[in-house]
Amino acid sequence: MKLYMRAAACSLSPHIVCRELGIDVELIAVDPANHRAENGNDYLSINGNGYVPALILNDGKVLTEGPVIAQFLAETAPEGTSMLPAAGTFERSQVQSYLNFISSELHKPMVMFFDAAYGGAHESIHALILKRLEWLNKRMKGAHLTGENFTVADAYLFVCLNWSPWIAIDLRQWPALSAFMKRVGERPRVREALRAEQLLAFEQDGVFFAPEVYLAAANRTGTPVLP
């Protein structure tokens, strides 16, 4: 399988799922400026919306949308129920509920901060994100969103929260979320994914990760993710 991705983008979520479940996948980076993949493919011919991720199956079928890809990957792996409970159970619906929440209430408004078209609405969007993070911090009672097991929803949340420093959100005001970032960032398979995408740890005790080019553009410094 092939995963079309961009370093530190939402495609990091299914990448982490692959690492956690031992799924062999080829990573193919996409340049957002011209939608050209590093293998020479026109990414718009794969995903007409232009954004990552996209998963190309061995039979050539294409699957898009990160939360769906993550669930698909978990269902194809022998150990997948560790990250996605069995269909028809409350636990499965609970994970899917968090996936929907993260997608609509965190991911979408967060990426609006990286688009100048929404500049006039940033203040209200920022307030909405703070409200959602406050709610989420109160909900997190265990090690992860639904308890002790690390699920596909946790991988997705980790990726979205990793963008916090870039949109003027100090995650340290929410102890449960800060602890979550540190806990997930220390998982061996998560660190494998971070290293594979050449992300550097920076600031706030090294619980956030970004490509070197992003850090340099923002006059930040970072260190490589170590084993």
Short note summarizing the structure:
By secondary structure, the chain is of the alpha+beta class. The chain has a domain at 90-187: Up-down Bundle (Glutathione S-transferase Yfyf (Class Pi), Chain A, domain 2), CATH 1.20.1050.10. It contains 8 helices and 8 strands; from the N terminus they run βαββββααααααββαβ.
Give a structural overview.
The chain is α+β, with helices and mostly antiparallel strands and about 230 residues long. The chain has a domain of about 100 residues: Glutathione S-transferase Yfyf (Class Pi), Chain A, domain 2. It is built from eight helices and eight strands; from the N terminus they run E-H-E-E-E-E-H-H-H-H-H-H-E-E-H-E. The strands form two sheets. Strands 3-2-1-4-5 form a five-stranded mixed β-sheet, covered by helices on one side. Helix 3 packs parallel to helix 5. The longest helix has 23 residues. It is globular. The mean pLDDT is about 95.
